[in-house]
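Curious: why this fold?
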Amino acid sequence: MNDCDEQLRLLIPRLRRFALSLTRQPSSADDLVQSCLERALSSWRHKRPEGDLRAWLFSILYRQFLDAHRRARRYARMLEFFSGRDDSQPSVERTVVAQSTLEAFGRLSTEQRALLLWISVEGLSYKEVAEILQVPTGTVMSRLSRARQALRQLSEGEINSPSLRILK
């Protein structure tokens, strides 16, 4: 069980990051990660030994989020734009593009955000995501393609039509 404890400790930051992207509130994300870990530990004996621990935990966390979301019938607030700790100042254009992309990402459906995060940020394979969602791999690929397309369209819409003031 000691090796299991270490594996769980290493995955907690990833689980928290994913939970934060879903809930958009640090305290709710912490609660979601805690309930995910409680559920995982209580049903540890049902886990397939050959299965991927990371994918199993993401699956538990995602299902718990959906369950809570359905019960509550409310959406979390938008992701806040945090300034980076980088000392160099980003250009105004890059900042606008980044804010626009974050806003567009926030307008995607929960499922689309989850797919983009699992594949692009967490580095899960299509097969692992398919196991989490219990759908064929091809379905994951097509949903991911639609999520990327939606993000592009939303981002471009924000960038192509900025509200500008004309100064005299």
About this structure: The chain has two domains: 1-74, 92-160. The chain is about 70% helix and 0% strand. The radius of gyration is 18 Å.
